[in-house]
Design brief:
The protein has helices spanning 9-19, 34-43, 57-69, 80-95, 122-126, 144-161, 171-175, 215-236, 256-270, 288-294, 311-318, 338-349, and strands at residues 5-8, 24-27, 50-53, 74-78, 100-106, 137-139, 164-170, 177-180, 239-242, 249-252, 275-280, 282-284, 300-305, 325-329. It has two domains: 5-236, Rossmann fold, CATH 3.40.50; 240-349, Rossmann fold (3-Layer(aba) Sandwich), CATH 3.40.50. It has twelve helices and 14 strands. With 350 residues, it is α/β, with parallel strands linked by helices. A seven-stranded mixed beta sheet has the order 3-2-4-5-7-6-12, sandwiched between helices. Strands 9-11-10-13-14 form a five-stranded mixed beta sheet, sandwiched between helices. Strands 1-8 form a two-stranded antiparallel ribbon. Helix 4 (80-95) links the parallel strand 4 and strand 5 (100-106).
């Protein structure tokens, strides 16, 4: 068995990024993700990498754009208000079809809100993150081990599809400590013939740009981009099912809400209630298939979230409104307890 080390979720993300070949990090401190930047500040100089605390979140994301244009693995991290500031740059990355990693360790909002955990950036991340027609690949870990593994996977998927990827975690995931194995395979970055690496007078110039002033050309670019998104949907959708084979009630939850919900499922099962859990791992692309299947045999789906009800819309769409979908939630930095989720399950079972 591989050796494990006790790490915070934020630290696991940083070390996994280094293992994935990331040698350039640009960021700005904001709770509850500051440990990502602090870890990179210590590690990057020791391995010949670049750590730079930018003057702002806006500056940081544009530095990411520059390094991504050169074909190198690069990342930034922030928390909710900081991600909003990065929104324009994220859209530019999408418009230029640049692979990069953005980490969002969410806090309560809107506005400056609070520093406690939240899942209220679901809409922002799964609907793009900035202006224009585009998507990011969005991965949602529910353990510190997954914080590490999905960071590596995010880099690999970003390179494979020339897309920006996001690891979307809540503050609990960033701050909690668990044993982590960092002994996992990493796919080396592929060749990037489109990158702006200097021609040495041996090839034509590469141009990285998100501006297209000819409407017909921009239309073709967007259509081609969405054809690539369809490939992501077909090949990269990820989810976990727990006790769903005979379930009469289904729980939908991700991140810390999924861990709480799994405890509630176990307790409900002890009481004879047939309930299961569907945990989306990719929030985009959203795993529609398991919810569509569940809607054929469950009588209700309960969406457990740390927001006012955001993922519930995708659950309803995926289940084609064939069964009632209800919300069990806490907001403002509060986390639903297993008892609260259990109570929702017991009410649905009557």
């Amino acid at each position: 068995m591989a050796d494990k080390v006790l790490m915070k979720g934020n630290e696991a993300i940083a070390e996994a990024a280094i293992k994935a070949g990331c040698r350039h990090y640009f960021g700005y401190p904001i709770t509850p993700q500051t440990e990502v930047a602090a870890y990179m500040a210590k590690r990057m100089p020791k391995i010949g990498g670049t750590f730079l605390q930018a003057e702002s979140e806006i500056a940081a994301i544009n530095m990411v754009y520059g390094v991504a244009s050169a074909g190198l693995r690069v990342m930034t991290s922030s928390s909710s208000p900081g991600i909003s500031l990065k929104g324009e740059g994220i859209s530019y990355l999408a418009g230029a079809d640049l692979p990069a990693l953005v980490v969002n360790v969410q806090r309560g909002g809107p506005g400056l809100g609070g520093i406690q955990p939240s899942q209220s950036d679901y809409f922002q991340s799964t609907r793009g993150g900035g202006h224009g027609d585009y998507h990011m690949i969005v991965l949602a870990p529910s353990s510190v081990q997954e914080m590490a593994e999905l960071t590596v996977k995010a880099f690999e998927l970003a390179d494979k599809y020339r897309m920006t990827a996001m690891v979307l975690a809540d503050g609990t995931m960033g701050q909690m400590m668990e044993p982590v194995s960092l002994d996992f395979d990493v796919t080396p970055p592929p060749e990037k013939p489109w990158a702006t690496t200097g021609t040495e007078m041996k090839r034509k110039h590469n141009i990285v740009n998100s501006l297209s002033l000819v409407p017909e050309e921009l239309e073709k670019l967007n259509i081609a981009r969405f054809e690539r998104y369809e490939q992501v949907k077909q090949n990269e959708t990820r989810y976990e099912e727990y006790m769903m084979d005979d379930a009469e009630i289904a729980i939908a939850a991700f991140g810390i809400a999924a861990r709480v919900s799994k405890n509630a499922v176990n307790e409900a099962r002890k009481r004879g209630v047939k309930v299961g859990l569907i945990r989306p791992i990719t929030l985009w692309p959203f795993p529609e298939a398991p919810f569509k299947k569940a809607a054929e045999h469950v009588k209700q789906i309960i969406s457990v979230e740390l927001n006012m009800g955001q993922m519930i819309e995708d659950v309803r769409l995926a289940s084609e409104c064939k069964v009632p979908v209800t919300l069990c939630n806490r907001v403002g930095g509060m986390i639903p307890s297993p008892e609260q989720v259990l109570d929702a399950i017991l009410k649905a079972s009557k």
